[in-house]
Structure to design on (242 residues):
């Protein structure tokens, strides 16, 4: 399955404004989603990754944010996942958000929850959040930042036995061959999917579409997309290779 590309780096907005763009600039967010679908994306992640962090730091309008982001991704010909990043050190995932996501999934408007950019230090928060999602009967995916030690990366991936899919997202570093190898060699459940979303551009370094395709193949990924700096051309190359 071809996933989408990044939202934050695709919006021509300062980072502090881009996070809430589904509310302030819904037409721009929907246009980015549509460009990825046109390039071959079969799944879209809502522009809500920053919401848990914002709520842990005083945001009180979660439902309008969630509804606006969902509206931006709906009815574009791709399945939709509610994307949630970590709330921050020592903060628990807001259960009202997970409950909202469960209701949305039951209505058929989204497939489930996509937990993104969790690292080893977020393990306790992630465990509590996935337990809550499982209790709600909601499908979920977990993608983590690759650790410097590939064995730790594999352990993080293998610990999420209840997830539909597990994998890596870029977050802070460009993916390397050893990160792809860690995903390829992780022992997953018989129906679990391998998810791979490498950064295309970060800190002046860049991956060409062919390099992204090669890394995804090396990772033996079932679901592939691009993260920071990715473009529709990267996705189109992935779709053509797949």
């Amino acid at each position: 399955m071809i996933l989408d590309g990044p939202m934050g780096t695709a919006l021509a907005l300062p980072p502090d404004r881009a996070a809430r763009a589904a509310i302030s600039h819904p037409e721009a967010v929907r246009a980015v989603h549509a460009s990825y679908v046109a390039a071959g994306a079969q799944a879209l992640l809502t522009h809500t990754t920053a919401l848990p962090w914002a709520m842990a730091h005083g945001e009180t309008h979660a439902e309008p944010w969630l509804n606006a982001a969902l509206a931006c991704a709906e009815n574009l010909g791709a399945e939709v996942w509610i994307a949630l990043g970590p709330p921050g050190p020592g903060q628990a995932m807001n259960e009202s958000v997970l409950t909202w996501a469960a209701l949305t999934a039951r209505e058929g408007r989204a497939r489930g929850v996509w937990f993104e950019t969790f690292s080893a230090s977020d393990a306790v928060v992630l465990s509590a959040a996935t337990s809550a999602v499982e209790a709600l009967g909601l499908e979920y995916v977990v993608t983590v930042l690759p650790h410097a030690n590939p064995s730790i990366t594999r352990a993080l991936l293998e610990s999420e036995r209840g997830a539909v899919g597990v994998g890596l997202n870029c977050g802070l570093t460009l993916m390397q061959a050893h990160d792809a190898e860690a995903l390829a060699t992780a022992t997953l459940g018989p129906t679990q999917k391998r998810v791979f979303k490498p950064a295309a551009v970060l800190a002046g370094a860049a991956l060409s579409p062919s390099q992204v395709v090669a890394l995804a193949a090396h990772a033996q990924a079932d679901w592939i997309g691009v993260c920071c700096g990715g473009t529709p051309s990267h996705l189109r190359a992935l779709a053509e290779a797949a």
User: Anything to note?
Assistant: The chain has a mean pLDDT of 90. Residues 26-38 form the longest helix (13 residues).
